[in-house]
Specification:
Blueprint (H helix, E strand, L loop, with lengths): L5 E5 L4 E3 L27 E10 L5 E3 L2 E5 L5 E7 L2 E5 L6 E3 L7 E6 L4 H14 L1
Length: 129
């Protein structure tokens, strides 16, 4: 069974929080141990869920992480939707990830702190066409 965990990107402070709190809640209310409403439009944070997968170094993979397939050299963005982990923005198109990929995946950044990784990938793809 997958561990339910969250992290949040603070759009104002531009920091990643691995123990996000629900705005207006008690200080000891931990989002990672609760099924709270995550779609708060006025929240300064973007909440991302842990996928249940780890990269080849044992680092937890969350939604929004940019992972590289170290054997093949391609990379993409992890997404978590309806219990399925997918990788988008890679040359294979949308790809469903499973534990069998873990030994070759490595987190190289995330879409909030490392946007330039995806920008340079798109630029490389455009120049090769």
């Amino acid at each position: 069974m997958r561990e339910i965990k969250f992290r949040a990107w603070n759009k104002v402070l531009k920091t990643m929080d691995y123990q996000p709190q629900v705005p207006g809640s008690e200080p000891d209310f931990d989002l990672n141990s609760s099924f709270a409403c995550l779609a708060m439009e006025d929240s300064p944070e973007v909440v991302m869920q842990y996928t249940g997968l780890k990269d080849k170094n044992g680092k937890e993979i969350y939604e929004g992480d940019i992972v590289e397939h170290t054997k093949e050299g391609w990379f993409g963005i992890c997404d978590w939707c309806n219990g399925v982990v997918t990788l988008t923005g890679n040359p294979l198109g949308n790809l469903t990830l499973g534990s069998y990929f873990q030994e070759h995946l490595e987190i190289i950044g995330n879409i909030y702190e490392n946007q330039e990784l995806m920008d340079s990938s798109q630029h490389d793809a455009d120049t090769q066409s």
